[in-house]
Amino acid sequence: MLSLIPDVIKLPVAIALGAMLAFYPARWLGQSEGRQMAATAALTKSVQVLRERNTIDDEVSTSDAAALCADLGLPDDQQAECVRRVLAPDAEPADVGNDPENRSTVRKPDCQPQ
Hints:
The protein has 114 residues and is mostly helical. 66% of the residues lie in helices and 0% in strands. The radius of gyration is 34 Å and the shape is elongated.
């Protein structure tokens, strides 16, 4: 049956088929290596950022209130107020929303929606 097809047609078809068989696996391998390199680069950057953040956290946690306020670049007359606010304990958390009086955010079954 293949003998009915002229060699002029069989040869280009065989070359194209061979090229496809070689091209797509090579492309797939290249893409997987590229993904692996991108994942490695992202992980390296993530570790670097976390190390820098930990260094900053250590500096802030070991600093006293006056040093923290001085690092903000405040004028001398505002540094005393800044130190007072840094040292003052928070009476209420800063993220208090519209919670009910008993601070429960869980609705009771007989409670109507507001």
